[in-house]
Amino acid sequence: MSLNTVNIEELSVNTIRCLSMDAIEKAKSGHPGMPMGCAPLAYTLYTKILKHNPSNPGWWNRDRFVLSAGHGSMLLYSILHLCGYEISLDDIKNFRQLGSLTAGHPEVFHTPGVETTTGPLGQGFANAVGMAVARNFLAAKFNKPGYEIVSGHITGIVSDGDIMEGISHEAASFAGTNKIGKLVLFYDNNNITIDGSTDKTMTEDVGARFRAYHWEVLHIKDVNDLNEVENVARFAFSIKNKPVLVITDTTIGYGSPNKAGSESSHGAPLGEDEVAMTKENLGWEYKEDFFVPDEVRADFEAAKGEGIIEEEKWKFKFEKYKGTYPELAKLYKAFMSGNLNDDWKKELPVYNDYTKSIATRKISGEVIQKLKDIFPNMMGGSADLAGSNNTTMKGVPDFSPQDYSGRNINFGIREHAMGAILNGMALYGGVMPYGATFMIFSEYMRPALRMAALMKLAPKYVFTHDSIGLGEDGPTHQPVEQLAALRAIPNLYVIRPADANETVEAWKTAIEMKDAPVLLALTRQGLPVIDRSKYAPADDVKKGAYVLKYESKEPELILIGTGSEVYVCIDAAEKLEAEGISTRVVSFPSWELFEKQDAEYRESVLPKAVKARLVVEAGIRMGWEKYIGLEGDAVTIETFGSSAPNKVLFEKFGFTAENVVNKSKELLQSF
């Protein structure tokens, strides 16, 4: 079949549509409407606009594409397969099946060419903003006249759902305020959600809203006009001083005679008969399912060749850069590979003034001041609580439109976006991101925390004011159930240090963690510095739990404490020992780290023979049953707190040595 260029492009677009329809139909599950409507946009971006190399998906200076509308995953899988990424036709045929590279929603580090895991709407939008933050920082630090070695764009497709979710409002405001350019998001404006027309739920002027956020707003009126798509996309990519939203008018389920423009094409297969009619309506001449015409293969092969050329051009430029700026080139490679200072731990402080009581949030702040000099790519900030969280890096400029090399990020009161922006920064690479807020506001961040854990990213979280110990602000600000809720997230490492030296060790663990996020739960109130000449050193924080105070003989009782309650356990143990009750104290800062230890170590800390175990923690009991068994007990808080000074609250709710002694005796008497 002899086809001119225009017809080949149309055939390529329809190949994307047909592969998507076939895969979803075979799986009997999926969202065909969005891939069918956005196929011309994806084709244009991947073959004419984006700098990417299917032969090397991890090329550092590639353009990043984020499918925030992750339910339309077959659009991405189809285009990646056709471009030559290592996604086979069998993978396309096994869409949504166990073990396939083509999961229901895109998953980063699982499928070549996928830049982030999307599914929860709005997360990808904010991830894209975070990627652009990291890119801008690295560009400001490393680019020199004639040597723009960090130049990739961040782009993607967002849906009505992304635009509705609150996180996109937060992230859009942040991006516009910071004038983050080379960030181009295409809004799939198909006017349909699962429940029907968006007129039911969304009547605002989206363009006006984004202009109010200081975004450039462009419009593609006919996504099937490939010339219009290319021209608008090229203009969008030329804008460097602000983010761009391209409102792209599409028809969901385009080509389907009976379901185009309807919610019936959104979240379910079209059905065999409708697929056949749609193919006929599109002028698709091939009877075989999952068919890719040779002309289409050739069309995409040319695009793949362009990607190889782009990377080779970048490599050539980088070699010249390396000759002119050898130290910067070495540092850039260290940033991007994550291979930085190997001898940094000895530079962190050790606390041995046992007359002091110091809040662990304050100690964390002192550690950050050391880390900022050790790791010049460490960057982050707080959701408008930097002074309370102690997270500002002193002597370091703010990340801002005036200085993108700044490392203090002012996230504003946008906890949810902050979490997802940190994820985007981690995904881009080259930086070590951290974010902070009060622990109670982890509730606003929970979806982003879960996504970080799911993607095996390693941002660091500084969550202060970790219990009723924060005092007078009262129950609205006092976390009670949050520790248990955060510990419930798989692959999120929660560390609640007991004193200054445990806090230092917690930061060491956080820095060393490369495949999981780490959360530090820190106090507002001062805590005694534990006398390590009398008690075990803090080194074993990395093991999650350790014997802090050994008993004078075989233990009758084990007191298990975390954070601010550990010193309560120490005081209680000394009183119990004075009465002849042999008592072990275990500091237990992290369940997740403890579970990584072998059975022998876990048994050495919590021997099965000792049934009398009492947990002391200013949070709910839920989850501790695993460590105290049916015979053990707990001093916890099962209600909301109150507004009062922290010492009054600790006494009111029983977090005193006297109460722990009494509870211990009651427990021992029950055996």
Question: How would you briefly describe this protein structure?
Answer:
The protein is α/β, with parallel strands linked by helices and 671 residues long.
Offer a few descriptive terms.
single chain; 671 residues; alpha/beta; six-stranded parallel beta sheet; five-stranded parallel beta sheet; 24 helices; elongated
Would you write up a description of this structure?
There is one protein chain. The protein is of the alpha/beta class and 671 residues long. The protein has 24 helices and 20 strands. Helix 19 packs across helix 24.
Helix content: 40-55%
Low-confidence stretches: none
Indicate the structural class.
alpha/beta
Overall shape: it is: elongated
Widest sheet: strand order? 10-9-11-12-14-13
Write down the overall mean pLDDT. Answer: 97
Distance between the termini: 87 Å
The biggest beta sheet reads: 6 strands, parallel
Protein topology:
Layout: H1 5-27, H2 33-49, E1 64-67, H3 73-83, H4 89-93, H5 123-142, E2 154-158, H6 160-164, H7 166-177, E3 183-189, E4 192-193, E5 196-197, H8 206-212, E6 216-220, H9 226-238, E7 244-249, H10 272-281, H11 294-324, H12 326-337, E8 357-359, H13 360-374, E9 378-382, H14 386-389, E10 408-410, H15 415-428, E11 432-438, H16 442-455, E12 460-464, H17 482-487, E13 493-495, H18 500-512, E14 518-521, E15 526-528, E16 546-549, E17 557-561, H19 566-578, E18 583-587, H20 591-595, H21 599-605, E19 613-616, H22 625-628, E20 633-635, H23 646-652, H24 657-669
Parallel strand pairs: 1-2, 2-3, 3-7, 6-7, 9-10, 9-11, 11-12, 12-14, 13-14, 17-18, 17-19, 19-20
Antiparallel strand pairs: 4-5, 8-15, 16-18
Helix pairs in contact: 1-2, 1-3, 1-11, 2-3, 2-9, 5-7, 5-15, 7-15, 11-12, 13-18, 15-16, 19-24
